[in-house]
């Protein structure tokens, strides 16, 4: 049994409006950072997982993303695994 | 003037309780994913920035993180920049 660390990004899909990101893009102008455009805000999730192999850990993290962490209608996810 | 893309992670500091992550860790058990532990949830932010150099872009993104994107009392941030 090995311990793996997963770093997961869950982002709103490109074709979906991101009102939080839009608001932050607007605020950049007020902060004197008008060079910053197209802010999009999602979630960054870290977790630890015990598994026999990297493949098994990958499958478990994928299942967690699909069933709990991401709403696949509005969000897409990606992750990377490293052995701890 | 070049365009850069920044990928920013903003996470609750280690010494700070993360109630959202705690709740998700608990839910993993109910989903049959008890191997998953120590879930922590932060923000993943992508943005575009126009700058003369990678150094200038780095300084601007750092300023945006400090002044708007992260609450440095409770959160830490890291980012990477790629030329678009």
Automatic annotation (TrEMBL), chains A, B:
Assembly behavior: Part of the FGAM synthase complex composed of 1 PurL, 1 PurQ and 2 PurS subunits.
Pfam families assigned: PurS
Annotated organism of origin: Mucilaginibacter hurinus
InterPro entries per UniProt: PurS (IPR003850), PurS-like_sf (IPR036604)
Subcellular location(s) of the protein: Cytoplasm
Catalytic activity: N(2)-formyl-N(1)-(5-phospho-beta-D-ribosyl)glycinamide + L-glutamine + ATP + H2O = 2-formamido-N(1)-(5-O-phospho-beta-D-ribosyl)acetamidine + L-glutamate + ADP + phosphate + H(+)
PANTHER family: PHOSPHORIBOSYLFORMYLGLYCINAMIDINE SYNTHASE SUBUNIT PURS
EC supergroup of this enzyme: ligase
Function: Part of the phosphoribosylformylglycinamidine synthase complex involved in the purines biosynthetic pathway. Catalyzes the ATP-dependent conversion of formylglycinamide ribonucleotide (FGAR) and glutamine to yield formylglycinamidine ribonucleotide (FGAM) and glutamate. The FGAM synthase complex is composed of three subunits. PurQ produces an ammonia molecule by converting glutamine to glutamate. PurL transfers the ammonia molecule to FGAR to form FGAM in an ATP-dependent manner.
Nucleotide-binding listed as a keyword: yes
Family to which the UniProt record says this protein belongs: Belongs to the PurS family.
Domain of life: Bacteria
Name by which UniProt lists this protein: Phosphoribosylformylglycinamidine synthase subunit PurS
Transmembrane feature ranges: none
